[in-house]
Automatic annotation (TrEMBL):
InterPro entries: RmlC-like_jellyroll (IPR014710), RmlC_Cupin_sf (IPR011051). SUPFAM superfamilies: RmlC-like cupins. This is Cupin domain-containing protein.
């Protein structure tokens, strides 16, 4: 068993785990907060809502995500987020090679 502690905490995000192939982040978003269009670099990204509701947009398609609904993105896929309610989201960035950035 490996005990993990949080690192790099900000008001918006905290890194829960990081190694050269995977990063797990917790995002805490307030109702109305937006994250503008961006991509996850060379990593594939899985977005897992655990509380609240977000509007997630990628490739011109928008989805309302709530706990129990998740989305998986390919590397370099542009996406944006809008919190419809106060929300907590887990992001998992995974790569065949080392993950770049956070």
């Amino acid at each position: 068993m490996q005990l993990l502690t949080c690192q790099n905490q900000t008001a918006l995000k905290e890194r829960l785990y990081h190694d050269e192939y995977q990063t797990v982040m917790h995002l805490s978003l307030q109702k109305g907060q937006r994250i503008p269009e961006h991509h996850g670099g060379d990593a594939e990204v899985t977005v897992i809502p655990v509380r609240g509701a977000i509007l997630f947009t990628a490739s011109g398609q928008s989805e309302h995500l709530v706990p129990g609904r998740l989305v998986h993105l390919n590397a370099m896929e542009l996406h944006s987020v809008h919190a419809e309610e106060d929300s907590d989201v887990i992001l998992v960035k995974s790569a065949a090679g080392p993950v770049r950035g956070c």
